[in-house]
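Researcher: Quick test of sequence recovery. Tokens follow.
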């Protein structure tokens, strides 16, 4: 079974909105909010909430975020062990895609 990350990106003034979306997603889809980064980190160019999910949960998570992401940009990617491909060719964006800092992978 493949695991995935969903990253909910937010501007500094929107931290509470992002936290609320992540918390509600955890409630409705049974996923785990595993990270909260209030600044850019690694390849991620903005603050973000990280959610971990399985392939079984993926469909429900995508469906819920399509309708409830509250205007946030969301990156969903698999965890295959190939970070560059996972964050580019294998990635799914909801909302406006962001330019990732791929040199930091």
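Model:
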């Amino acid at each position: 079974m493949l695991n995935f990350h969903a990253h909910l990106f937010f501007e500094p003034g929107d931290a509470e909105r992002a936290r609320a979306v992540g918390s509600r997603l955890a409630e409705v889809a049974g996923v785990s909010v595993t990270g909260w980064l209030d600044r850019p980190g690694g390849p991620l160019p903005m603050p973000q909430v990280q959610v971990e999910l399985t392939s079984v949960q993926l469909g429900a998570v995508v469906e819920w975020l399509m309708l409830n992401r509250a205007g946030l940009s969301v990156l969903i990617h698999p965890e295959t062990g190939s970070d560059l491909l996972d964050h580019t060719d294998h990635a799914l964006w909801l909302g406006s895609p962001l330019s990732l800092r791929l040199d930091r992978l």
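The radius of gyration is 13 Å.
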